[in-house]
Design brief:
6PGD_dom2, about 350 residues, 2-dehydropantoate 2-reductase activity, NADP, Rossmann fold, 17 helices, 2 domains, N-(1-d-carboxylethyl)-l-norvaline Dehydrogenase, domain 2, binds ketopantoate, EC 1.1.1.169, binds NADPH dihydro-nicotinamide-adenine-dinucleotide phosphate
Length: about 350
């Protein structure tokens, strides 16, 4: 199959390399020194799915001659709309998968690609951008896909799932994609503290004080979802019942959530995608993660002081380029929220 991958960074790069390894003809849209390195040396993959250098065709945008039968947009959320617009002619009416954390990704891309069936993807894979032309899978895991709307999108979701499965990346189509987006939004509460402190997700969860803050931000996010009538879809062992319990439980019990995520991530340190943006001096996706929780809380009675403060701290680190010491983070959050229980 001819596949176009727009945004061949950590996730898009890993998926592009795996698809090429499985015999697909893969075209990637990339930029800067990453594009130069891919063109010169190929796209190097290592980690949980083995070592491989994929020979993909790479350009700033997909060329018209690529004629993709499937497109995967795997940019950060704030870049997806522009990425879809800049590649719209080459994409044509090809089925397009929007692989993205946060809420509302499919809607933003669909506006730019009115002729394409649109599919959402949420992945529990953890991947890192190591260097230009080089990506690494630190945790191999599954991906869930969901149709945006209608039969055409549902067929496209099946097509994408078979392409991923055939290339050795476990994927399944689920009916309640919006519920899964909310469940993933809870998982992505792991992203802010590594971005603020510079520590890996596992290190943050192993620190009792930081884990308390993370649990409190997850609890707020679950409460917001419940207040908005969200039914959390079951995703990697996280179920609506478990999350509803966390919404009512003290933090000492709620910490089972981050501890479970640490167990699934395994031993290889995972910086998370937000810290990786900061390390590369890029704007982060935090407005679509903790920022989405703060936005969704508006109009509900749910207070979200932890998410508000984490959002502020990530923006501070983006601006200053300097991570904050753990003690300072704990003091700042507790000054904003009062004692966390
Ligand atoms: N990394 C992970 O472990 C996981 C990430 N996710 C989600 O997947 C999505 C992608 O994340 P991730 O792979 O980490 O992000 P990366 O930043 O590693 O990759 C995104 C890539 O897209 C490139 N890009 C942005 N706009 C364009 C464009 N118009 N044309 C071509 N390339 C473009 C970026 O270039 P540049 O660097 O120049 O900005 C970058 O190389 C996010 O929504 C993230 O939350 C989900 C699960 C796990
Ligand atoms: C699941 C996790 C935490 C994997 O790194 C992720 O989605 C991210 O980094 O954005």
């Amino acid at each position: 199959m001819r596949v176009g991958v727009v945004g061949a960074g950590a996730m898009g790069g890993a998926i592009a390399a795996m698809l090429e390894r499985a015999g697909n003809e893969v075209w990637v849209a990339a930029r800067g020194e990453h594009l130069t390195a891919i063109r010169r040396d190929g796209l190097k993959l290592d980690g949980a799915w083995g070592e491989y250098t994929a020979r993909v065709s790479a350009a700033k945008t997909l060329p018209l001659k690529a004629k993709p039968e499937l497109v995967i947009i795997a940019t950060k959320a704030m870049d997806a709309e522009a990425a879809a617009r800049d590649n719209a002619r080459a994409i044509g009416d090809a089925p397009t998968v929007v692989l993205q954390n946060g809420l509302g990704g499919m809607e933003r891309v669909a506006e730019q690609l009115p002729g394409s069936p649109i599919v959402g993807a949420l992945s529990m894979i953890a991947a890192s951008y190591v260097a230009p032309g080089h990506v690494r899978v630190t945790t191999a895991a599954n991906t869930v896909l969901g149709a945006f709307r209608g039969t055409q999108d549902a067929d496209a979701a099946e097509l994408a799932a078979s392409a991923l499965n055939a290339a050795g990346m476990p994927a399944e189509v689920i009916a309640d994609f919006e519920g899964a987006q909310w469940t993933k939004l809870i998982v992505n509460q792991v992203n802010a503290l590594p971005a603020i402190t510079g520590l890996s997700v596992q290190e943050v969860i192993s620190h009792a004080g930081l884990r308390r803050i993370m649990t409190a931000s997850m609890r707020e996010a679950v409460r917001v979802g419940l207040a908005r009538g969200v039914r959390f879809a079951a995703f990697n062992g996280l179920t609506h019942a478990r999350l509803s319990f966390v919404a009512r439980a003290p933090l000492s019990l709620g910490q089972m959530l981050p501890l479970r995520i640490r167990a699934y991530l395994g031993a290889t340190p995972n910086p998370g995608s937000t810290l990786q943006s900061i390390r590369r001096g890029r704007r982060s996706e935090i407005d679509f993660l903790n920022g989405a929780v703060v936005a969704a809380a508006q109009g509900t009675e749910v207070p979200v002081p932890v998410n508000t403060e984490l959002l502020r701290l990530v923006h501070e680190v983006e601006t200053s380029g300097r991570h904050l010491p753990v003690r300072r983070v704990i003091d700042r959050v507790t000054a904003a929220t009062g004692p966390l229980r």
